[in-house]
Design a protein that fits this description.
By secondary structure, the protein is mostly helical. The protein is built from 22 helices and six strands. Strands 1-2-3 form a three-stranded mixed sheet. The N terminus is likely disordered.
Length: 452
Amino acid sequence: MTQSTTHVIDIAQIQVYLQKRDLKRLRPLLDELQPYDLAQIFFQLSPQLQRLLLEHLTRDEIGELLEELESPDQQAVLETLGAEKTAQVLNRMSSDEVADLLGELEDSNVQKLLTTMEKGEAEKVRALLDYPEDTAGGKMTTEYVSVYNHFTADDVIQYLREEAPQAETVYYIFVTDADDRLVGVVSLRELLIAQPNTLIRDIMYERVISVPADMDQEEVAKLLERYDFLAIPVTDEEERLLGIITVDDIIDVLIEEAQEDISRLSAVGYTEKEVITHPFSSARLRIPWLLLLLLIGVFTANLLGFFEHTIQQVAALTFFMPMIAGMTGNTGTQSLALVIRGLSTGQLTRDKYLRVLGQEGIVGMIIASICSTIIIAVVTFLEGNIYLGLVIGAALWCTLLIGTFVGTLIPLLLNIAKVDPVVASGPLITTLNDVFSLIIYFGLATLFIQLL
C-alpha cells in the first residue's frame, strides 16, 4: 500500500513540476526513478506533459525509457523526439536494443536513422540487423569486454576501467588470441583475486561454451538455464567472437516463448500476443482453429446418429455423455501439459519417451479406477440401475486411460516428426478423444442394451 501511495505522489509532483517547468525540483524525482517506473509514469501523463518530460530527460534516460516500451510506443516517442535527437539517443543505447527497435520500423525509416547515427554505432547495428530476430545473432550485443591472452591481470583491470561504462556486462571477460578466436573466459572474481602480474592465459577457463549465430533463441535459453550463466558468447564458423547474449535478454526470450506456447495451446494464434489488438486481426487468427473444431463437431454429431436407437431406448445415457467427453478431454490435457513442459525444458529426451508413456499409462489406470468406481456408485444411486452404472463406469475407465495415453503419445510423435507439438497437439487430441469417448461409451451401451 505504501509503495503504491508513493508512486501516486511522485506522479502528481512530476505533473506539477512539469507544468511549472521547475527543473530544479523535478530532477531529484527523476533521478530516483528506475527505468520501468519512469515508463509507467510516462504513460500517465498527457501528450503535452510527455513532450515536456522528454525535453528534460538526458539522452541516456530516454534510451532507458525506450528499452522499457513496446514497439508502437517506441515509435511514438521517436516521432516526438525528431530525427536529430533520436540519432543522439540511439548512439547512447546498446546495439542490440537499437537493432530490436529498428527491426520494427520500415526499411526507409531504418536507413534514414542509421545515416544520422555515429558511423561506428551504425555499423554495429547494421551487423545485428542481418541476423533473424529469433536467433542468437539477433539477440546478441556487441558491447562486451574481450582481451588478448597475453594480458596480465593488472592490464585487464586497467582496461576494464575504460571499457566498463560501454559494456553490457563486466562479470565475464572473454579472452581471444591474435586472430580474435575465442580461447577462454575469466570471471571478474577470478580477476580480482589474481596477482597483478598473472597472465590471463594462466587463470582463464579454456572450455568455453559458446553458440553459433544462427542458433534458435529458445535453444540458447536452454543452454543458459542449464549452465546458470550470466552471459554466453556468440561465435562464427571459425570461433571468432561476434558478441554475447546476457541473461536479461534470455529472460525476455523465455517470457516470449511462454506467451507464444500459451497462445498456440489456446488456439488464438501464436502471433496474437497483445491483449488489446484489432478485432479483425484477432478474428483472422482464431477462425481457422474454430472452423477445425466446428468440423469436428459436425463429425461427432453424425457419429451419434449410429447410436440413435440406443439413445432412444436408454435416454439416461445422454445425461452422462458430457461428463464422459469432458473427463476424457481433461486427462488428455493434463498429460499434454506434462509432455509439452518436458519437451520445452529439455528434460524429456527421446531416450525417456517409453518411460514417460509407461508412467502416464500407470497414472491413467489409477485415475480411471478411482473415477469409474465413484461414478458407478453415483449412477447406481441416482438411476437405481447397477448395470447402467457398470456400463458408464467401464466406459469412463476406458476413455480416461485412452485420453491419458493419447495426450502423452501425440505430442511425442509430432516431436519425432519435427512438427511443433504445441501448435498441432491440442486440436488433434481433442478430435481423437471426442471420437474414442463416444464410440466406447455408446458402443458398450449398445452391447449391453438388454441389461439397461
